[in-house]
Write a structure and sequence with these properties.
Two copies of one chain form a homodimer. The first copy, chain A, has 143 residues and is mainly α. Chain A has a single domain (5-142), classed as Winged helix-like DNA-binding domain superfamily/Winged helix DNA-binding domain (Arc Repressor Mutant, subunit A). Chain A has helices at residues 5-19, 28-35, 39-51, 76-84, 106-122; strands at residues 55-58, 64-67. Chain A has a two-stranded antiparallel sheet. In chain A, strand 1 (55-58) and strand 2 (64-67) form a beta hairpin. Chain A starts with a helix and ends in a 21-residue tail after the last helix. The interface between A and B is large, with 42 and 42 residues. Chain A binds a DNA duplex (30 and 30 nucleotides) through helix 3.
Amino acid sequence: MIFSRKSDYGLRALMYLSDRRAKGPVTLTEIAERLMIPKAFLSKILQQLAKKGVVRSLKGPSGGFVLAVEPAEITLQEILTEIDGPTRVFECFATESDCTLYGDCLMREVFGEVEDQIGKVLAGYTLADFHLTPRASESPAKA
Amino acid sequence: MIFSRKSDYGLRALMYLSDRRAKGPVTLTEIAERLMIPKAFLSKILQQLAKKGVVRSLKGPSGGFVLAVEPAEITLQEILTEIDGPTRVFECFATESDCTLYGDCLMREVFGEVEDQIGKVLAGYTLADFHLTPRASESPAKA
DNA sequence: ACTGAACAGGACCAATTAAGTCCGCTATCC
DNA sequence: GGATAGCGGACTTAATTGGTCCTGTTCAGT
């Protein structure tokens, strides 16, 4: 699996915050309950995202988390990288000296290409493309 | 990591067999030693590839493994799939009922796209593209 | 100032998967 | 029939992921 459960949780939490970013801070407890994510675990994920500046956390009563970026300004690639770290496609186990490949390592080339393609797809979407709930701003009559 | 160490071992073993497929069966011991792969572990991998018909195994003295396909006829995608199983990019952890996504699941779409792109890259290479050693048939004067 | 709501962060534990080993069995060549 | 080589199942170990717990610290409201 390329993307972990952590990414799934984190991404959904960001969608939740994105949907409610007009309404002030949302508590960890609320997000965890609504999205059915283990609270303590989600706490770690949001802490991590807070350090990276994706969300802002406010302590004390009436505190919680708010999205710190414009949903349309952060790509899926950025989000997943910030949660899971860079997508590693293949790691060469051989050391320089015992790599028996002929000439330039074609493997590196191939897997570099794979990484690029993955990145390209993920960079094509932003948080604004994802919603957990219908947007209040969207005309319901259009259904 | 998308691709496991098992894939690395298996792929390199296939390159080895590809390079020497004119010279008859190669023993597990030879491959393991040359490529510095734990023998018992490589055995499992080659067994697996034998079941899939990628290599053929011959028991008894003067036995060993031979490549059972034309190197140019098997893609990197096929090889990696046969060793590691299909590349799973993302697994939705929510059940149908608790998936809170709005409308059609955009996630599925995105990650399907990612899988397609990975497949496209890997399908563009065959075993014939990879070599552990210089090909004898290739003019050395060209260097 | 005190209280209680809320996040922070380190240490810890559990579950899963990946990686690797062991050993008796079977086929094959000479 | 003995030596050689792969087969295959059970097992162990190591690494990673997923998750918990507990003790802070910050801060709004009184």
